Amino acid sequence: MDDSELCLTYRPDDDRCLGELTAAVRSGAFSGQGTAWFNRTEIEECLVAPLGTFPLSSTAPPKIEGGMGNDDDFRCHLRVMVKPYNSRGILLVHVDLVSDYWRQASIVDAPNSASIRFLTEYALVNTFAKELQRVLEGTKECAVLKGYAS
Fold it and tell me: What's the pTM?
């Protein structure tokens, strides 16, 4: 089951309320990395806390997304979502990543992007949620969610 994984790290800003979340994800032959800035409370309320519930909601799954712009021109740089996949308790991890195109002036109109998905299970998600809370508190470097290619 170890051929897919999501690793989240968090680097807080000086005030420790806002920080850069980095996601490194791989599934089979596919991999990618992306970052976005988030309020720590948003990560705790929209991802960590909901990941600890059973069953996860299929209509409002645990999800965070960050990027640039307002409602009309929002450009997502990082999205992490975990939702039910089937009735046997298998879960789908869905991660969308977009490169930092403002740092790569030559490809402003064509940033690199990846949408990577893999399957996992509740026990692994529960452990991941606890690890992510520790990452946000600064007592762990990376929270890892293991899975298998979908």
Answer: 0.89
